[in-house]
Each structure stands twice: as structure tokens, then as C-alpha cells.
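Checklist before submission:
- one chain only
- standard amino acids only
- sequence pasted in full

Submission:
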Amino acid sequence: MDWKSGINGFKSYLMLERSLSANSIDAYTRDIDKLMEFINLQFEGISPLVIELHHLEAFILFINELGLGPRSQARILSGIRAFYKYLLVEDLIDDDPTELIEGPKLKRKIPDVLSYDEISQILASIDLSHETGTRNRAMLETLYSSGLRVSELIGLRISNLYIDLGFIRVIGKNNKERLIPIGEAAIKQIQLYIEGVRRSMMNIQKGHEDILFLNRRGKQLTRVMVFHIVKKAAKEAGIDKNISPHTFRHSFATHLVEGGANLKAVQDMLGHESIITTEIYTHLDTDFLRETLLSFHPRNKKS
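Returned file contents:
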């Protein structure tokens, strides 16, 4: 049995035997789609009938490395358990490989994942009547749109903005550069900041002319300042969670993957080192990354 036939049978089982709603069935099958995608990439498409514990542990490690929170990991694991319960019921397997899997510890909530509504609340709470408000809105939109690390955000250069193409170039860990797609909402706020607040600055310090986000003294922002800005915005929005700049990166990955985005594309956008040999992964071109962001990121979906 291949993955597609297994997933189709699983959908029928959920509908006929468990009488689940269409939304619940869709959520379960998306979870199995993620596992199938991972297995096809790492283990050259082995059948779901021969999956063993070590395969599943590698998958769980992978989604953890992507930045998915404990609750998201637990939900995906629940879908996988249901799939293998179905295979047992149908006598397609003799042993359940999920029996010995340890689920994530849900009590660990650092960093928290923000819902899309909470992200929107934080962004809307920023006072745009002040110059720093325009800058801060652009920064937080960029954090959430592209999943940047705080060090990548403060080091972002105007010369590395390819706004007409919908991409930015960032320098990540170990000075590795990567191209990341950026959404329309973030592009709009960056343009408002550049054309308004930043252009009117008269005191940009030498060596900081190409840095995108500057403080009032015309210098590059510090990591501490970005942490302060994020926490203040969350407080003003009434969000009672342990918020940091990394929370936006964490939420970026979670929302994309839960929306159905390709795991490898999300990993590439985050700039994570592959936990799988590089030969196994095929190269993803920038058009595919851009399409992933536009298709699955909440702030790019039109109501």
C-alpha cells in the first residue's frame, strides 16, 4: 500500500467509522500529508506499512527544529496515532509504531505561539502617529512575514531589499546569506517607513547609512531595544503571554505549517541547517518559496 491509498482509506475510515466533521478529517489528513512528505524526502518514500519508531522520532525532531510549539507537535502526533490505529483496525499492520513515542511536554510554553488574531492585535496596537510607531510596525510586520531572527532583523540592509521581486536577503547564523520571500503587508509598512520617517532623518550616523531600521540617533537598533519594543506592543495589545521577537518567528513557522505549507520550504525560509543529508533534499527555487509564503501565510490571504 502506498501513502496516497493509505490516506484515502484513512479519510473514509474517519468519515464512516468515526463520523468526524469535514474540518476534522481535513486536519487529520494534513498531519499525515506532512509525515508522508518527510518520509519521501528522508527515506526515499518507504511505505507507511513499514514505518518504525525511529522514522517517527526523526519526523518529530524535524518539526521541532522547524519551531513548532509543543501543542502543535502534540496535535500532529495525535493525527499520526489515529492513522496507525486505522491501519491496525484494517489488519494492514501487526504493530503500532506510535506506541512508544513520547509526546512533547505541553507545560513548556517558552516561547508561546501567538494566534493570528493576537498577531493582528499587537500590530494594530502600535501608535502610527509617532515616528517610532511607523518603524516599529514595519519591524514587527517583517518579523512575522519572513520569520527572521532578531539579529537578522536589526542587520537588515536597504541594499538587500528586493521589494519589486518580493524578497529580502538576510545574513543568518555563521554569516550565511539566504533569500527570503516577504509578504505585501510587510512591504507596504517598510515603504511607508523608508519614504516617510527614515527619509526625513537628518542624523544618520556614518556606517549606518544602509541599515534599514534605525534608532532616533541614526544608529542600528540593538537586540535589547527590539525586545523592549515587542514586549511593549504586546502589553498595549493586552496579550498576556511571554512574548519576545522569537515569538513572531515561532508563530510564522507554526502558522505556515499548520496552514499546509511544504516543510522543506519553511525550513529554507527559517535558515535552519538540515537535519537530513543534503543529497536527499532537492533544491527549491525562489519562485516556489515565494508561492509558499503567498499561499499559506495568514497576512497574505485575502478575505
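Reviewer check: The radius of gyration is 21 Å.
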